Amino acid sequence: MRFKSTVLSGAIALGLAASPALAEKKIVVSGSGGGLAKVMTAIYDKPFTKATGIEIRRVASTNRVSLLAGMEKTGRVLWDVTELSGPEFPLSVAKGFVRALDWNLIDPDNRLPAIARDKYGVVAASFSTILAVRTDKLPKGKKMKSWADFWDVKTFPGPRALRNRPVENLEFALLADGVPTADLYKVLATKAGQDRAFKKLDQIKKHVVVWWKTGAQPIQLLSDGEVYYTSAFNGRVTKLAKSGTPAEIVWNGGALALAYYAIPKGAKNIKEAHAYLSALALDADRAAAFVKIVPYPGFAPGLYGKIPASMGKVLPTHPDNVKVQFKLNVGFWVKNTEALQERWDAWLLK
Question: Would you list the domain boundaries of the chain?
Fold first, then answer.
């Protein structure tokens, strides 16, 4: 199997060829618990141990930044690899809790795309906040293709919904106002850009009948026909469409959110941790098995040749979908959420 050959070649490069000492090696991986942990254990951890002799001890964790801070303070680093989702990753990097990776060990042939290769982390999974459309509610002969269309209430009349927070909505507003994807955060970093986003939101505000707070809400609204167009999480829309509701994803202008695996600063088993990250990032067979159960893919090269085309086209890291989305800049929001959330709350009350 490809996984075994990939891992073994990486292990040899790292000096981890099978030996009696290697059989005693163990790394501790901090990540999600529950069903996801069981999937990771079956698809990645056990085959990795079989191929390399490195045992994986997986521990469920939350509040990882606080736990890393405690390890830093005491000097007792308990993890060799950790999952870092949402703001956890940029916060951990900013505070110096994770070490720079050696990408020559993880991906020596540069097979991963640049978006998957951070100085401090390997992309482990992804999801997107996208524009979801009830296709049976579209005007005859019309197709919604962008956030500019979402804002175009004359061509596309009907009730709308958006999430109740500034994150992503300010980006969507700027896209609707003509800002190129590549310039989003350059513009949003300025007072003028923020004013521009809120001014654009003024135009759509009265047409938004629900400001949703949970991922299930927009799906129920679409299902019931209470809204025709809404932001939503991609995986939920795919499930809704499979259930028979005529709903589709508009990937153009989607906000691609990434989760990472990283190595804590002070981790004891650096070589073995790099070998594990390499296995997570590069093996298409294992990645395919994973997304068939959990539709939150990474960027394993060759993944989309291992799964049906119908499945691939509704995943956020498919090349056709990645190229029309923007990467959510969580670092920007870590720095600016407090001020912009305050402005957002005041704006909603106007």
Answer: 2-125+258-318, 127-257+324-349
Alpha-carbon distance 321 to 336, whole Å?
27
Task: Tell me which CATH homologous superfamily contains domain 127-257+324-349.
Answer: Periplasmic binding protein-like II (3.40.190.10)
Strand partners, 255: 129, 326
Q: Which two tokens stand for residue 54?
A: 């490195």
Q: How far is CA 282 from CA 163, 267, 346, in A?
A: 34, 22, 46
pLDDT tens string 216-267: 999 999 999 999 999 999 999 999 999 999 999 999 999 999 999 999 999 9
Single out the residue of 147, 210, 191, 225 nearest to residue 343, CA to CA: 191
Residues 126, 188: Cα–Cα separation, whole Å? 23
Q: What is the DSSP letter of 25?
A: -
What is the rounded distance in angstroms from the CA atom of residue 113 to the CA atom of residue 83? 20
Tell me the C-alpha to C-alpha distance, in Å, between residue 169 and each of 140, 146, 191, 200, 273: 28, 14, 16, 10, 37
> What is the residue whose two structure tokens read 């254990």?
41
Crossing angle of helices 2-13 and 284-291, in 10° steps, is 130
Is the domain 2-125+258-318 a CATH 3.40.190.10 member?
yes
Geometric angle at alpha carbon 212, from 207 and 213, rounded to 5°: 155
> Whole-model pTM?
0.91
Please work out, in degrees rounded to the nearest 5, the angle formed at the alpha carbon of residue 290 by the alpha carbons of 217 and 285. Answer: 150
